[in-house]
Fold this protein.
Amino acid sequence: MTNKMDKMKWSSVFADLVLLLVKSVYYIGESIYYMFVPLPEKSLADDIVLITGTGHGIGKCLAMQFADVCTKVVCVDINTQSNAETVKEINAKWKGKAFAYTCDVSTLEKVRELGEKVKSEVGIVTILVNNAGIMPCKPLEAHDEATIKKIFDINVFAHFWMLDTFLPGMKALNKGHVVFLSSMAGIIGLKNLVPYCASKFAVRGLSEAILNECRDDGFTNLHFTCIYPYMVDTGLCKKPIIRFPSLLPIVTPDSTARDIISAVKKNLLEQSIPSPLLVINNIFRCYPYKMAMDFKNFMGGGVDAHDD
């Protein structure tokens, strides 16, 4: 009896292995196919999108561009005045499409209050873009305890509070998309950005973990995208170091927003901006560490320390 059960067990393992190999070949072929054929894009016409940090920079550009493709845009920022200006610009073109809310997203209680207001006044959010963030540029020793805590409160914990508040609504609909704004500094560690890099590495891990948790729980229509922008001209990085500016120029908030929305429409799991950077990083991660570091040093890139 025991031998029979063992044979059945190993037969099941063998069948699973064959299925895994067949699927792997298919996925590789699919990836090669989409290297030459554009991925299909989903419609966002019926979605309600909520974006944090919409008072300026990438967040504002995202709000303006999502307004062209979504039914409603919820703009959230801690700065009431700049956020109101964003909403005013959107509603001048699309009357009644944008809604402004002031919120400190680093505080769970305030995010929950925001969630209740948005649900009753606008509806259930189906696209959540966690964009708000700060980037002090200075050596680790120059960071005090309060600054490091603030970096993590805004850059990391705010993501948890937004998920805690808005993900249940998406799960109830079995429909939704969450965008995490990480950074290329969440892929590669950089001088003068140690706490910032740590926070963006954390966002990357959060994105991957919540994706797998939701997938394993059967929420097949929930999608998650992690974005890794290079240096974006938002004013956060005042002293960028770029050795080859013609090859890797500072990207604009407008073009960054376009790439993010495109990634959402294609249900991409992750996207660097510019897109080749993530591929280059993945390739060099397969080579000896010293070789990768020498290539990084050759390419240059980083930030000089400066006051906030």
In short: The mean pLDDT is 90. The two ends are 72 Å apart (CA to CA). The chain has nine helices and nine strands.
